Automatic annotation (TrEMBL), chain A:
Residues 25-153 form the Tripartite ATP-independent periplasmic transporters DctQ component domain. Keywords: Cell inner membrane, Cell membrane, Membrane, Transmembrane, Transmembrane helix, Transport. One of its GO terms (biological process) is C4-dicarboxylate transport. This is TRAP-type C4-dicarboxylate transport system permease small subunit. Belongs to the TRAP transporter small permease family. It is found in: Cell inner membrane. The keyword Membrane applies. InterPro entries: DctQ, TRAP_DctQ. It comes from Demequina lutea. The lineage of its organism: Bacteria, Bacillati, Actinomycetota, Actinomycetes, Micrococcales. It is a multi-pass membrane protein. Signal peptide: none annotated. One of its GO terms (cellular component) is plasma membrane. The chain crosses the membrane at residues 12-32, 47-64, 85-108, 128-149.
From TrEMBL, chain B:
It is found in: Cell inner membrane. It is a multi-pass membrane protein. The chain crosses the membrane at residues 7-25, 31-51, 63-86, 106-130, 142-168, 174-199, 220-240, 246-263, 284-308, 320-337, 342-359, 365-391, 403-427. PANTHER family: SIALIC ACID TRAP TRANSPORTER PERMEASE PROTEIN SIAT-RELATED (PTHR33362), TRAP TRANSPORTER LARGE PERMEASE PROTEIN (PTHR33362:SF2). Coiled coil: none annotated. One of its GO terms (cellular component) is plasma membrane. It comes from the Bacteria. This is Tripartite ATP-independent transporter DctM subunit. One of its GO terms (molecular function) is transmembrane transporter activity.
Amino acid sequence: MNAFKNALDRILTWVCVALFAVLVVDVSYQVFVRQVLNQPSGWSEVLATYLFIWLGLFGSALMFGERGHIAVDFAVRKLPEKVQIVVAVIVQLAILTFISLVLVWGGFRVVGLSWDQNLPGLPVNVGPLYLALPISGIVTVFYTLYHLVRIVTGAERAVNLDAEPELL
Amino acid sequence: MDSAAIAGLILVVGIAVFLLMGAPISVGVGLSAMAALFVILGVQNGVLTSAQRVYGGINSFPLLAIPFFVLAGVIMNNGGIAVRLIGAAKVMVGKMPGSLAQTNVAANALFGAVSGSAVAAAAAIGSTMGPLQAKEKYDKNFAAAVNIASAPSGMLIPPSNLMIVYSLVSGSSIAAMFVAGYIPGLLWAGACMVVVYLYARKRPELKSTGRIGFGAGAKIMLEAAPALLLIVVVIGGILAGIFTPTEGSCIAVVYSLALSFIYRSIKVRQLPGMLMDATRTTAVVMFLIGVSSIMGFVLSFAKIPALVSSAMFGLSSNPVILLLMISAVLLVVGCFMDPTPAVLIFTPIFLPIAMSFGINPVHFGIIMVFNLCIGTITPPVGPVLFIGVKVAGLRIEDVFRRLMPFFGVLVVVFLFVLFVPSLSMWLPTTLGLVKP
Amino acid sequence: ATPSGSSTTAAAPVATTVFKVAFNQPETHPEYIALKAMGERLKQRTNGAYSIDVFPNETLGAQADTIQSVQSGTIAMSVIGGSLLESLNPDFVVFDLPYVFTSQAQQRAVTNDPAVVSGLYSSLDSKGVHVLGAFYGGVRNVYNKTKPINTPADLAGMKIRVMQSDTNIEMMKLMGGTGTPMGQGDVYTAIQSGVLDGGENNELIYSTLKHDEIAPYYSYTRHLMVPDYLIINPEIFNGMPAADQKIFQEELVKAIDQENTEFGAQVDAAITAAKAAGAKFNEVDTAAFQKAVAPLTESKLTDDVTRKIYAQVQAAAK
Ligand code: NA
Ligand code: NA
């Protein structure tokens, strides 16, 4: 399970880096062709929006893998360790429920409904772009199960003490 | 009870319970909103609509400014730009009492003016300034408090990612929000400087670090000029019509990247790591924005903001009292919650009420951001407080005591921002970004 | 079950099925006013069995999202711009072409004439989208910050904001300018600061978004007259008793009439307001623009369906 997680981490990391790098190039290109060449692009803004959605969703999956989503844990930290484990298990189950219902099931339904809906400006349909929802959902489900097992077996702390404050 | 009331109850109770259990805020909000949708739409359509909202909530070109400004901040953090900004800040504050602490305040404001993140400022400036101040016999806890208290000014001074989030939920112009933040942001920094001044005046040992000669000052400013030019390039480029605010954020990335390569302070192989740092922050915020959009759907579908506002008008019809009530709620919320989710959750509820007594959405945005920024330096949930304490290697309790005077002054400044609309509105109105 | 939304026991004696309608414009828009009034008449004539609740300002999501909500039955109806239906069935392009209609009255007649549209409007039923009828969406004209436009040559070098599609960019190129797609939220600042020289839209949007203050030259190119469609989930519609369906259709016809009249009145008011804000309106050499964009129309009529409908529209103009 660990080896699989490491491989998944690495793939997701490189996907995110690539998406982000293309994003920077795409928007720079948009400004350049409009302001310098006076030839506005018809697709750069649409492409940027989709790259960004994929980056956000895959990055979010990766953050579930790192247990890095913003949480308020001051109350939990004061609990006895046994109770902390119980609470942490409930939290992981809550993540599992939300992700599998919304991102995976709901995601596949949206993909189905929009599969052959065409997208102006880009040579792709809307449906495949929505695949980011179920794919990131399935990855997150794996990560959540991974943490669930490790919390129950005591391989990992109930409260993530290394969580860095993330804020805009 | 009708389904709207049940949905509202599920939202309130669900979010509170998950928050207390330490669940990711996004999951707490998302799961509660999803359950509320189940009540209104049934399970089948509830999951579909939820998925659609997560995706639709982040399907927005203007939101792209967030990853870009975050990335620009990361690059500047690694690229030696912080050190040059500190140099410039030092020259600017001259030999005021407590000049080293004043430098810290000014450097945070400058860092805020070129990046969108208060946490990045507190980390980058604090880790450099802390040791310097210790050497000059400053009380460590006071030095850390100065750094922490002044860092959030950068969330008001443009560019500001929090303002972008507010623009998204309120529908107001990003350019107008950016410009509106200048004066309140500078007032924030000024308030911190006043506290430092009063503290240092009675401590002769903190008088000054010695004057910087004209030649040396000019040299420092010249070195910092390219970094400071970023403000001119990005904000100037937006106002001059070369690019939109969203595109400007990408230009900020390109510019700071170029600068860092010129300074030779970063290497190409460091880039993937920086992109990942920015991805982490961005992804967390994006997911939060996505799931908040499920909640937004529930709120409008069940017409909950109308219920809340009629309840509030039932308590009082006096705008001043209602504004103070909203502000008090936000101040308490800010203690327990990060500003981004708070903006996402409370804007749709409070903005219509504020607008009903004639408050401009841009002004209300500044009110919210200023108020919630105070929360970033308070326990129990205070990201700027945490990072500032961490880089200084101190204890929260000790630093918190030194923060108290800053809170007092900031709350007073907040009341001015609340009741004097022109502090927020004068600049954007003068520049024609909002209608008078 | 009422997949269209909540059942509430209001003042009416029986439970009312409330059709939720997603709408992307504010409450003052002619389509909102007409749909709301239609809901009241519908409720009265069906003895409270059916009514309509319109959700303005995109509160139920962007137009593209609301199509899926209608498909799934999450909401009953939505008002959709023409180009979005093109993404589901390219044949809808006919009504979105430049200069396809000669007048508001002609568009109103043709786009609601069963002989012309019944096949087209039912073509998406299997995908969960039925088109009930078409509202008048205004006529789009070019406006800019520099000078009145008379001929395509006047647009040379001007960046004009267009809707996000290659067709619109191509159209603006043929009209002499440079089509620049951009989200509407950025347009005001972009024109003001000079990223853009102008935009193209109907008088209502021009005045409501205050573009008259920053781009005072509004020139009647009348290049696009794209209808807005009212779509419904076919299962929900077919689930209504035949008698109620008939009432619904009758009231919709009245709503479309009301909307057309109201739109005209609002355009007059918008022109007055824009003039007060300093805008100047002028007529253009329409024939020159028509000639310029003709190749685009040709290239879009690619199959028998579109060519047949186009011919019918042309015939109705005479
Ligand atoms: Na800033
Ligand atoms: Na706090």
